[in-house]
Amino acid sequence: xxxxxxxxxxxxxxxxxxxxxxxxxxxxxxxxxxxxxxxxxxxxxxxxxxxxxxxxxxxxxxxxxxxxxxxxxxxxxxxxxxxxxxxxxxxxxxxxxxxxxxxxxxxxxxxxxxxxxxxxxxxxxxxxxxxxxxxxxxxxxxxxxxxxxxxxxxxxxxxxxxxxxxxxxxxxxxxxxxxxxxxxxxxxxxxxxxxxxxxxxxxxxxxxxxxxxxxxxxxxxxxxxxxxxxxxxxxxxxxxxxxxxxxxxxxxxxxxxxxxxxxxxxxxxxxxxxxxxxxxxxxxxxxxxxxxxxxxxxxxxxxxxxxxxxxxxxxxxxxxxxxxxxxxxxxxxxxxxxxxxxxxxxxxxxxxxxxxxxxxxxxxxxxxxxxxxxxxxxxxxxxxxxxxxx
Length: 390
Ligand SMILES: *Cc1c(COP(=O)(O)O)cnc(C)c1O
Description:
The protein is α/β, with parallel strands linked by helices and about 400 residues long. The protein contains 15 helices and 13 strands. It has helices at about 15-25, 30-45, 55-65, 85-90, 110-115, 135-145, 195-205, 230-240, 245-260, 295-305, 320-330, 335-345, 355-370, 380-385, 385-390; strands at about 50-55, 75, 95-100, 120-125, 150-155, 160, 165, 175, 190-195, 270, 275-280, 285-290, 345-350. The strands form three sheets. Strands 1-9-8-5-4-2-3 form a seven-stranded mixed beta sheet, with helices on both faces. α2 packs parallel to α8, α3 (about 55-65) crosses α7 (about 195-205) and α5 runs parallel beside α6 (about 135-145). The protein starts with 12 loop residues before the first helix and ends with a helix. Residues about 385-390 have low confidence and may be disordered. Pyridoxal-5'-phosphate binds near residues 56, 84, 153 and 177.
């Protein structure tokens, strides 16, 4: 165990009370808390419908089914994400096309997506990476021009906004995850949000074995058990009631980091703070500058971990994961921007209850760990002094 962990949920007495009340009620599934949680999510995202499920992955899977995407369709997506955002496409044998990400935002850019659209492209599945919103207004122009569905993997971005409009309402369907490291947690859990009555009704049925929504024991579709239980939903209600508080705490931790790491900017690139959109802080990911060698990040991680500081490589490129290489033949060099970011980024400890003192401890450890970190050989050394002196 690290003395400063990578992440930690923030559970107050409210969460204890709500979960306890469910246990005392003996209504443990498909009860009032599920509906309340969905109402809170729909209100937060300013959409007509929220459908809660038992993971972010399940939300993404249902989003694809809800849009009717299948094997003859192609979906454009990002290789710089948690593997779930691409795995769900494989569940349905949907063809996918990776598009390389923007080197400063690490997100898919609308113009790059537009260039990759083909005759069989039916949708774009973009990820608001690390809580930084995708350029959804731009993405909507691309989708209107090419008649595409938009799917937002918003698992990092609950509470983020663009032009004061929350993430969760920009795409045809948006998906959230509530694993304990996310802005809010339900233990395990997820939710999709949409303005489409038909899509919401279909997904509501699919999460419950394809059962007719009027409660009859009639199964209209091939469905799944993707239900969120009452304990999870109660936990989620308490966390949603505290969303503003949790977001403010995270933003404060991020500002402490910014301040503490500002002097290290010759060596590291800090997260982007956007002007046009409001980021929701999910993780605090720094990137080593180009003058360090390719193995520097892993050594830096080891040094930090030895000092009791939790950290992780966020994220390895999806196309270079063993399963994807083997099945699809991807190789290093296929998506160079993504690969470069993957090789140089590092998530530092980041959670709502993190103290300023902890941030300073991490910053001090980082400053020490950067000393003598292997550098790329400078260009002039390649020629060598013997050659130039002769
Ligand atoms: C967390 C996450 C998910 C969902 O993960 P679950 O563990 O299934 O809740 C999906 N996409 C991204 C990018 C994530 O970070």
